[in-house]
Design a protein that fits this description.
Layout: H1 2-21, E1 39-43, H2 45-48, E2 56-59, E3 68-72, E4 80-86, E5 93-100, E6 107-113, E7 118-120, E8 129-131, E9 147-149, E10 158-160, H3 189-199, H4 208-214, H5 218-258
Parallel strand pairs: 1-2, 7-8, 9-10
Antiparallel strand pairs: 3-4, 4-5, 5-6, 6-7
Coiled coil: 229-256
Keywords: Coiled coil, Signal
Signal peptide: 1-19
Length: 259
């Protein structure tokens, strides 16, 4: 262990001695020729804007007292530069952004705040992940909570304020097969007529005002519509049997008359 300590100490002494003897005319101290003029540490305001094409710049600009202010200046004029800040102009956040040479201010692309809020394409995220832009993903898993599209306060698993277009929608719901069971009490047409006169709608069908206020349940509504179709089918069958019975009686009367 002592040998390791001595080795590290010797290495530091050598580097310090080397750096004291290796400087350029611009005042930059560099231990290696390959990065000379490309590394700034503790840059002052005047040094911060001198030249272009710097590979790495640590320091602060003016009143900016960020712990780390990393800038990748583009070596070509009229291009976009890359910035990375820890603190970001005295704000408690980590920022990655860009700035074109013609722009006065940088544009934040990624923000992480000390309160845990994270933003992409937005300067002040207000949620755990706040994205201003398009998301492309192979899959998305949401284990809890509600999803809102076009609404900021979803009350259901999926709230959409707008139009949905799909090739197919699968809805799981109960169905209306009970209409054809023997114990089903089919309302008479007279009862249906009286209900229509009183309520202005078919039995068990919600009113217009209820639909405007609460909307409709797609699965329940389809089952209800099927129930009415099946009831109509039973009415038609009853009418057909009555007509056949009447026709039989007519034929019997005709037979008696011709005798």
């Amino acid at each position: 262990m002592k040998k390791n300590y001595m080795l590290c100490l010797l290495l530091l002494i050598c580097m310090a001695a080397f750096s004291q003897t290796k400087s350029n005319n611009d005042g930059y101290v560099s231990p290696f020729e390959i990065i000379e003029k490309d590394l700034q540490l503790g840059a002052t305001e005047s040094e911060f804007y001198v030249g272009y094409g710097k590979k790495l710049n640590f320091g602060h600009n003016g009143d900016n007292m960020d712990d780390i202010h990393f800038v990748r200046y583009n070596i070509t004029l009229d291009q976009t530069d890359f910035l990375l800040n820890v603190g970001d102009d005295n704000n408690d956040r980590f920022m990655i952004g860009r700035q074109h040479w013609s722009e006065d201010f940088f544009t934040p692309q990624f923000i992480f705040k000390t309160n845990g809020k994270m933003g992409i394409g937005i300067s002040d995220p207000t949620t755990s992940l706040d994205i201003n832009g398009t998301i492309r993903a192979d899959s998305l898993l949401i284990t809890s909570g509600n999803v809102g599209i076009g609404t900021e306060n979803p009350q259901n698993k999926l709230d959409v304020n707008g139009t949905i277009r799909a090739k197919e929608i699968l809805v799981e719901s109960n169905w209306a097969d009970f209409v054809f069971k023997r114990n089903y009490k089919l309302p008479t047409l007279r009862e249906v007529e009286e209900h229509i006169k009183e309520k202005g709608r078919l039995p068990n069908v919600p009113s217009e005002q209820e639909v405007k206020t609460n909307g409709i349940n797609v699965g329940e509504t389809n089952a209800l519509l099927l129930q009415k179709i099946e009831e109509l089918t039973l009415y038609v069958i009853q009418q057909q049997k009555a007509m056949e019975q009447q026709q039989k009686e007519i034929e019997e009367l005709k037979s008696k008359i011709t005798q």
